Amino acid sequence: MTEACVGFTRVLRGAGLPCGPDRVQAFLRATEHVDLYWAGRLTLCADPDDLPRYDAAYRAYFGGTPPRPRTTIELDSVTVGVAASEVEVLKHKDISEFDAAPLIARLTPLPPRRRSRRLRKARRGRMDLARTVRAMIETGGEIALPRHRRRGVKARRLVLLIDVSGSMAAYSDALLRFAHVIAHAMPVEVRTIGTRLTRLTRQLRERDPERALKAAGRAIPDYEGGTRLGDALRRFNQQWRQRGAVVVLFSDGWERGDPSLLATEMARLRRVSHKVIWANPHAGKPGYRPLQSGVVAALPHVDTMVAGHSVHALEELLKEVRRA
After folding, report:
1. Domains in the chain, ordered, with CATH?
2. pTM above 0.85?
3. Distance of CA 164 to the CA centre of its chain
């Protein structure tokens, strides 16, 4: 079965579909939950324009007519089957309750941006006097259209701090997969926090998500251990020398250490960061109140707290990061 699926992805790649390693892994995992046709359609098609090519490749490789959905709705002239509705339901389901890897692999992160100091040619903006004068000289002194320049745009550094303590065990795998997707889309620094601070940036550069997570698991000495957020953040602040990053902290806020130390280190982190976002897996649940000692200590130094319990919440988090 696996060999046939991989062969099918080669045919799709030849047809121009973006079947990279992450999508192939998501496809293989999705076949455990839905039939092969829908698993591929949901994970290997990045755009509605891919659907006709996908169906043609399916017919050519497997023979026969692609299965039709049990019920359909029309959306932008594309027939969307019941499987798509099921995926939308899964996106809002708590990621601690099912294998969210196929959906996480489909996320498309975009980096936060900042204005660079370097000025670039532009149609509008500040007048570039030197270029304007050169243009006049080249035309024999005739009046030339003004040249302009403006500051360019660069990707802003992103930092992910992921709580891997026992209370976050149900979310750790999905969040590390989320970090892996981001690591292959933009510059990012990834650390895990628990009783210790562990850098995973190098391990998550591995293209294959399964190998990357295995390497990450071997590197984390305090996986599913206690929680000393203040101590871990103090070590991070001592090591991290870059200013202006967007920092995302994934944690439920349970703290066994000194809450005052956590407050001090969060304030220190906020001073050198462009923005600090706290993604709490409990924040999106009905009736949640931020009463944990860690949350109470840290909240005054957090720009925004968002939910982090579902694929939909992670999609919204990516939008928040992009806007930062």
Report:
1. 2-91 (no CATH), 116-155 (no CATH), 158-323 (3.40.50.410)
2. no
3. 18
Whether 222 contacts 168, CB under 8 Å: no
Q: Give every CB contact of residue 310 below 8 A, 6+ residues apart in sequence.
A: 91, 92, 93, 94, 95, 284
Nearest to 209 by CA among 245, 254, 179, 230: 179
pLDDT digits (tens, 9 = 90+) for 250-275: 999 988 889 999 999 999 999 999 99
Q: In whole angstroms, what is the distance from residue 31 CA to residue 91 CA?
A: 17
pLDDT band at 39 (very low <50, low <70, confident <90, very high): confident
CA–CA separation, 51 vs 156, rounded Å? 35
Give, as one character, the DSSP assignment of residue 120: E
**Burial label, 157 (beta-carbon count in 10 A; 0-12, 13-18, 19+):** buried
The encoded tokens of residue 69 equal 């959905």
Q: How many CB atoms lie within 10 A of CB 136?
A: 13
Would strands 158-163 and 188-193 be described as parallel, antiparallel, or unpaired? Answer: parallel
pLDDT at 123 over 80: no
Could you give the angle at the alpha carbon of 97 between the alpha carbons of 95 and 102, nearest 5°?
A: 50
